[in-house]
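Hi, here's the filled form for the chain we discussed.

Project: internal
Contact: R.S.
Residues: 256
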Amino acid sequence: MTLFDLAGRVAVVTGSSKGIGRAIAERMAEAGAKVVVSSRKRPACDVVVEAIRAKGGEAVAIPCNIGDKAQLEALVTGARDAFGRIDVLVCNAAVNPFYGPLAEIPDEAWDRIMASNVRSNLWLTRLVLPEMAERKDGAIVIVSSIAGLRGSPGLGAYAVSKAADFQLARNLAVEWSRHNIRINCIAPGLVRTDFAKALWENPETLAVTLKQTPLGRIGEPDDIAGAAIYLASAAGRFVTGQVLVVDGGVTIAGRS
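And the returned structure, exactly as it came back:
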C-alpha cells in the first residue's frame, strides 16, 4: 500500500456533482476508493457516477439535501447498504444565498447559511463517527474556505460559517481522535468552480486576486482534490484538528 492509496475504502462526498466535490469524488475513485456521489439532484450525480465507472472505478449516486436531517440519515444508510461501511466522509456541500454586509442580511439567509454550512456537517459527522470509532479508523474532511480566516465586506455570513467549520473540526478531533479518527478542514482560496463563478468571471475581481496570489493563478478543483486525498489516506494519518490552506499563497502575502 502506498501512502496515498485508498483501495478498499468507502468515501461519501457531499456536493459532489460538480466543482470541488466532483474532483474529490473522481480522484478518490482513481485512488481506489468506492465512492458515494451525493448532491440534491440525481441526474447530476448519475453523470459523475458514470464518469467514475467509465474509468473502472466503483460509485453509486445517493441524492441528498444536506439541510434535511432525514435525507442525511438516508444518505448514510444508503452508503452502508451499497458498500457496507463508511471510511471517509467529505463534507463539501455548502450554500451562500447572500452577498453583502452583515448589517443587511435577512434572518432567513443567515439561518440557511448556518444550517447548511455548519449544522448539517455536525449532523452528518454524528451519523458516521460511531462506526468509525468501533473500527478504530476513519477520516473526515470538511471543505471550508479562506473566507473563514479573514474579514470580508460582502461574504460576512459565509465567512462566519466557514470559521465555525474550523472550530467544529477542532472540537470533533479532540473528542474522537483517540479512536484513530482524523478530522480536518481544507480552506481553499478562489477556485474555478460554478459556485465561485461570480468572482473569477469578473475581470476586475480576477485581476485583483491574481495580483495578490504568489502563485499567479486561481485554483482548480484538482488542487483541492489532492489535499483531500492526503488527509483521507495514510499520508495524513498523524494530522487531525487542522486547517489545511490551499490558496496559492493568498493568505501569506500582503495586499497591494
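Let me know if anything looks off before we file it.
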